[in-house]
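User: Predict the complex with zinc ion.
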Amino acid sequence: MFIELTDHLRCTGDHDEMFLVLLPDQMAGRRVDRGTLGCPVCGRVTAVEGGVADFGGGRPSEASTSLTAPAIAALLGLSGPGGYLAVFGSPGAAVADLAQVFPGVRLVLVNPPEGIADSDQASVLRAGRSPLKARSMRGVVIGGEVGADLGWRDAAIAAALPGNRIVGEGEPPSRDDLEILATAGGVWVARAMPPAVRR
Ligand SMILES: [Zn+2]
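Assistant: Here is the predicted structure with zinc ion placed in the model:
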């Protein structure tokens, strides 16, 4: 995982969002290859092995997806480098293509399919509950099987920075803090509303 991603991670324990403390054992450039993430609230320790932070309880995604990298790029409308794009579930399989269509944007893959390795292009996280802080990501992509699990879906939506877009598969969510921009072919696009304009 990218060392700077630590700032956007939360403990998956059952308590308020809190920062994690990284103790890197082995680095490869800006990438943590081996280390631990410790929670100052509950003391939980998450291991980073082979660059993958495994919070426990995560299952590799096995579903198919219609969200290809070009489709995601067109729907998210991210322009310019910087920030993080979180991809939940099966669309993370397209990591090489995603890296190409989003140059300079750091990819965070949460529970991607088996065999997707952590790399300089993308941080891989495995977890039974979203380990991303609220309002931390420039864009969020939600694969179908994640979208069908409301707890996961809401946590994924919460990770988007206000004003930025979320692309998901499945039923479009109905929430006060979300403006649905488009739905077609089982895919929805929404914008996370800034707090000032929330109804
Ligand atoms: Zn904790």
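The chain has a mean pLDDT of 95.
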